[in-house]
Structure prediction request, 683 residues.
Amino acid sequence: MSVTRFPARASGPADRMAGFMAHLRLNGLGVGVADTATALAALGQVNALDATEARLALRAVCAGSEDELRRFDDLFAAYWFNAGRVHSGTSTKSNAASHRARSAPPDRIAAAGGHGRADAPDQGTGEAETRGDGRLIAARLANIGKTDLRDLVTPEAIAEAEAVAGQIAAAIRDRHSRRFRADRRGARLDLRRIARASVATGGEPIRLYRRSQPDRPARIMALCDVSGSMTIYARIFLAFLKGLMRSDLTADAYLFHTRLVRVTDALRDRDALRSVAKLSLMAEGFGGGTRIGAALDSFNALYARHAVGGRTVVLILSDGYDTDPPERIAAALARLKKRRCRIVWLNPLLGWKGYAPIARGMAAALPHLDLFAAANTLAALAALEPEFHRL
Amino acid sequence: MSDWRTLQSELATTGYVAADDLAMALHLALVLGRPLLLEGAAGVGKTEVARVLAQLRGTRLIRLQCYEGLDASHAIYEWNYQRQLLAIRAAAEGGVTGPGVEARIFSEDYLMARPLLQALREERAPVLLIDEIDRADEEFEAFLLEILSDYQISIPELGTITARTRPHVILTANGTRDLSDALRRRCLYAWVDYPDRRTELAILAARHPGIEAALAGQIVGFVQALRREELEKKPGVAEMLDFAAALAGLGINDLAADPVALQATLVTLLKTQADRAAVPTEVAQRLAGKAA
Prediction:
């Protein structure tokens, strides 16, 4: 095992632990100041000299979700067994940026069905670091060699798309609950409550209570096809997605071609350069073939469980050309539909004269859709607003 | 042996085989007095942890099953309005009015304690199981946060009720929706996964000691192979135990021997029509053959 060298000023366990917490925070785990104290307390309760025990204990304290749990072991190894590499406990600005770029949400890429997970306790140590560097290099290569999204998302397009996406997001979100709840300025009287309160005043309704239907905004999940056949629309759709992400903080965006990748965080990043770097990193295989069915399957398996419920609108932006058998799309949509969500399919080809949805995939999908509409330009998208209101 | 290993073996004596990370998280939750959030697929034994823990500690298990629309009056407390009204009526007929009546009807006699308040009023620290927290609304999460951080409840008419002892809180979630970061941060976290083969064999041996080793191996192998198939609902540990019980009840000693009986017992494992259709006799036989 390699010797871990700590910065000279790291004096005791508390300092090292603070450094570890900073390391986790830089890598996107939401640990707070109080967690450092908890972590130290936790180490006091176990045999902290045993690496496995310490790892298990710190993991229970620091990880807050399944996702973080899976990344924790690598981060743990990277910090405590860092193969002689010195981490500065506090990071400089540039350091922080590079860390954050690396910690782009782990592209949980469609290993649909494959449930293989490293159940075995840690075998490798320094591995995490090398992988981290590898991803950074890959990012640069992707920037040079593959589709460069810098050209695809121009400032003007973003501005226009943001406006359109904002309207559409508002139209989709604008929903009232069916239930009533107490509201001092509500439109209706709450007769039941008034009657009950009137008991105290001898049957005279003196205090009036009101109620209203509160807002129950719908959540938007956008799945955008970025395969070869969609290349010419990619510009509009990416700008649209970006606008959507900016205007609606609960929305989620995914790109798919032969795999599905979650791009919410990348699109929401205010730093344009970093956003592009993250996107390019994820957009490997951009402009290739399409496997809509497989992408929907992995959406079902990985994300829908958490994200899709009765108040969700799933927005699919695709032309419906697919290399999978059409039954797969139908089955995946049927499964998605069971989560009681609305499914909207925006097809750029529908804007063409004389287009009929005869692509087999598209035809198979039709029965499961709540809305099937054209979207080949931003204007067409904007025109859809009333449709979304009706949804 | 360290404390968490002790806990792990204590759990094993009650028939609960806990993986290392679960045992560690549970141990830390107990010694640090923090709530423990358990996530994982349905049927991996999240709720069971709480039950076993209560049994181990010899305390009460107080369970709050969450559902959409769960509110404070169902989770924390509610005044018994009917009794209050009757008391007012009775007092008025007896000629008593004024502050005396008010003090009486807002006393603990008229308070209906719901699970969260019950948990705070126990003499011995109970195990408080908040089941499927992700089904409750986000508003309820906010209530819960307040209680989990201070362990006290304020009732306007009575004042603040502070916990006599800190309950051991276990929350479970299935992933119906994402939980708020604030709640996640307040809790220790463990992900409960489907057990590996060795663990599952140990679970089976602990729960159904009568099943012989060869069949137990087949059962676990079969169920694990089934989980690798593309199914809507993967069979959990509870389903595996039902399956084993069904086989034992039918007197089957070899999975591959009787295709019809195997197919019939699949009702314990596959709970949707699509999954039944996905595992016809041939597939079941192939899996059983591999498991043997």
User: Anything to note?
Assistant: Strands of chain B lie at 36-40, 61-65, 77-79, 111-113, 127-131, 152-155, 159-162, 168-173, 188-192. Chain B has three domains: 3-76+114-192, 79-106, 197-287. The first strand of chain B starts at residue 36 and ends at 40. Chain B has a mean pLDDT of 87.
